[in-house]
Design a protein that fits this description.
Number of strands of chain A: 23
Oligomer: heterodimer
Number of strands of chain B: 13
Order of helices and strands of chain A: HHHHHEEEEEEEEEEEEEEEEEEEEEEHHE
Number of helices of chain B: 2
Order of helices and strands of chain B: HEEEEEEEEEEEEEH
Helix content of chain A: 10-25%
Largest sheet of chain B: 7 strands, mixed
Structural class of chain A: alpha+beta
Largest sheet of chain A: 7 strands, mixed
Shape of chain A: rod-shaped
Strand content of chain B: 35-45%
């Protein structure tokens, strides 16, 4: 019987303790009820339901809606409460800037900064100009994709920040002869799953080497995209594409094509600085790898050897006598000269020597070799005949050094030795036939 | 009346003298011979004359002649500093050029060109081309412009009778004008071949002789 009473007393004390605890809890609940902004689990779950990217971020705390002095609401929390304190309220206040830091609430949520704290805000897009990071400096694969769910419009559509997207420019063929054309295509690659709503290409090229034309926007952004093509002019053009009726580019592929015609021998880089938007009204620069168009000339080679006591120049003339190229022969008289395929007149000349002339046919990719020829010394005045006036030039400049053409034996002095050289070829006329 | 006539005569004579002097007054080149009648073997001296007011650094003349009648010998210039330029000569054309390293102002005889008469001929000497030469800015010899070349032939009458030859001047400033003669190539006799052929001929002769001597003994 004693044992029963003792058990009863223990149970009674436990009941009293529990009752006190319940009373204390009731008092606490009663005292907190008037504070409607208290971060209840239902508010945060509404936020993470609306913005899944918040779930694993620092924003998934009371600080989303409260100041450091809980339960005081911050401007975002106050707006949330004022618009109904339900999931739809987040959508109603997305495009306002609650904390007045220059960024809308949705921009801050996407950037994972606190929309109710002005000290917490995204880095300004203009803080890093598009050209600050050359496309080639950061390979497309060097920027890992950061899957961050975001919201577009009233309906939450998971997407990613398009930092993993990049642009490639293809030229087919990459090397063409002068006057030829190459087909160009500017493609978006690694397009995020959420798609891209618009894109802007600011392209540049060397207009002295390349002429760009026939810019045609493809169907990457769906049917009837809104496009703007500005240029080409002065080595640049701009192509802007926006999907219409909610269409987006959701797959990789060519955004537009163009034609690149080579104007002269050389090479030109064709680059397109590219900015894209996922539809959140933010343009983000993505890397672009430029292409290079090489403009070549269909050429062959003329080679041979010209012997003279003075430096020899070999010149190629077009049929209309205009110069097509020239080269100074090596010390041993050998020379090599590249030229476009065609028929030319080759003229070998040296100061004080009769010229030699040949008709040559240069074919693409092959070498035409002329026979070795020795130029005849004595045509000091270069009138294609070795005559008395050449001899007189030696005479009136006897023991002198100029004109250099009169120093036929190249010994630095104009004297009888030069007259002797001249006499050997006296009355010879040029140009010498050269084959 | 007498004084008037005298005045007219004076003016006429004055004009005549002026015209004579100015017959070659403009820049010009011409040739003349000391005489026009020669005997075979005598020396013809042709004077190359020129007039100019421009200092020159050289002159050149190409004189056509008949190589059957005349043989060019040499040429000299009386102008100090004018040196002859020896260039290959061709038969029938004297090519005489003289040059000076400094400009020279001269009028009258520029050079004497000497020929030897070869046989009785009626022949002419004619300037084919000629020029007074100046130096251009680049140092090249160029012809002085505006120079008239008198190409009137100088007629020579060469008698076939042998005349007395005159001594030909020679010196450092004498420009030889004899045409370049290329020696004719002579056949080279290969004596070794000749000896071989002679030996073979002797063998053949010996065989023939033995054959002839052996015939009487044939049946």
């Amino acid at each position: 019987m004693k044992k029963q009473k003792k058990l009863w007393r223990v149970l009674n004390r436990m009941a009293v303790t529990l009752a006190g605890a319940l009373i204390l809890l009731a008092v606490m609940i009663a005292s907190s009820t008037p504070q409607a902004g208290f971060a209840l689990p239902g508010d945060l779950s509404s936020a993470t339901s609306k913005y899944p990217n918040l779930a694993s971020s620092a924003l998934n705390t009371c600080d989303l809606c409260h100041t450091a002095s809980i339960p005081t609401l911050n401007p975002f929390g106050a707006a949330y409460k004022a618009n109904g304190r339900n999931p739809a309220a987040f959508g109603l206040i997305e495009n306002i800037d609650s904390d007045g830091d220059g960024f809308t609430n949705i921009q801050e949520i996407n950037a994972l900064t606190f929309p109710g704290n002005p000290a917490s805000k995204p880095a300004a897009p203009t803080a890093v100009p598009p050209t600050a990071i050359p496309p080639t400096a950061v390979p497309p694969t060097a920027i890992p994709s950061t899957p961050i769910p975001t919201a577009i419009g009233p309906t939450a559509i998971p997407t990613t920040i398009p930092t993993s997207a990049f642009v490639t420019i293809g030229l087919t063929p990459p090397s063409v002869n002068v006057g030829g054309s190459s087909a160009g295509a500017v493609s978006l690659n690694n397009v995020p799953a959420g798609g891209l709503a618009s894109v802007e290409f600011a392209c540049t090229f060397n207009s002295t080497i390349v002429e760009v034309s026939n810019i045609v926007v493809g169907s990457l952004f769906g049917a009837d995209p809104v496009t703007v093509v500005n240029g080409p002019q002065n080595g640049s053009f701009l192509v802007a594409i926006a999907g219409s009726k909610g269409n987006k580019a959701t797959t990789s592929g060519p955004a537009f094509t163009f034609s690149a015609k080579s104007l002269q021998v050389g090479q030109s880089a064709i680059d397109c600085q590219t900015r894209v938007s996922t539809g959140n009204l933010l343009l983000v620069t993505i890397p672009s790898t430029p292409a290079t168009l090489v403009a070549t000339s269909a050429q062959g080679t003329l080679a041979g050897k010209v012997v003279a006591g003075k430096p020899v120049t070999v010149q190629l003339n077009n049929p209309d006598s205009s110069a097509a190229g020239s080269v100074t022969a090596n010390v041993d008289g050998t020379f090599s000269l590249s030229a476009s395929a065609g028929t030319y007149t080759a003229i070998a000349s040296a100061p004080g020597y009769l010229k030699a002339q040949a008709s040559v046919n240069i074919t693409n990719g092959s070498t035409t070799t002329l026979q070795t020829i020795s130029l005849l010394a004595g045509d000091i005045d270069g009138n294609n005949v070795i005559d008395q006036f050449d001899a007189l030039t030696v005479g009136i400049n006897y023991n002198g050094t100029a004109p250099a053409a009169a120093d036929l034996n190249n010994d630095g002095t104009i004297n009888v030795l030069d007259l002797e050289v001249l006499a050997v070829n006296y009355r010879q006329t040029g140009p010498q036939a050269w084959q | 009346m007498k004084s008037f006539f005298a005045l007219i005569l004076f003016v006429a004579l004055s004009l005549t003298s002026v015209f004579v002097v100015n017959a070659q007054a403009a820049d010009s080149i011409w040739i003349q011979a000391n005489t026009t009648a020669y005997k075979t073997g005598e020396t013809v001296t042709v004077m190359l004359n020129a007039n100019t007011a421009t200092p020159i650094q050289g002159f050149t003349a190409q004189i056509r002649y008949d190589p059957a009648c005349l043989q060019p010998v040499n040429s000299t210039s009386p102008i100090s500093g004018m040196n002859g330029l020896a260039v290959p000569q061709t038969s029938g054309l004297v090519d005489a050029s003289f040059a000076s390293t400094t400009p020279q102002l001269a009028n009258g005889v520029y050079a004497y060109v000497l020929f030897t008469t070869l046989k009785g001929c009626q022949t002419n000497l004619t300037i084919e081309t000629a020029a007074l030469v100046v130096r251009n800015e680049s140092g090249f010899a160029v012809p002085l412009t505006g120079v008239t070349i008198n190409q009137t032939p100088v007629a020579l009458n060469i008698d076939s009778a042998i005349g007395s030859s005159q001594p030909i001047a020679a010196g450092a400033n004498v420009l030889p004008l004899a045409p370049t003669v290329f020696p004719e190539s002579k056949p080279v006799i290969n004596w070794w071949v000749v000896l071989l052929l002679a030996f073979l001929a002797a063998i053949i002769a010996l065989i023939v002789a033995v054959y002839k001597f052996s015939r009487p003994f044939e049946s």
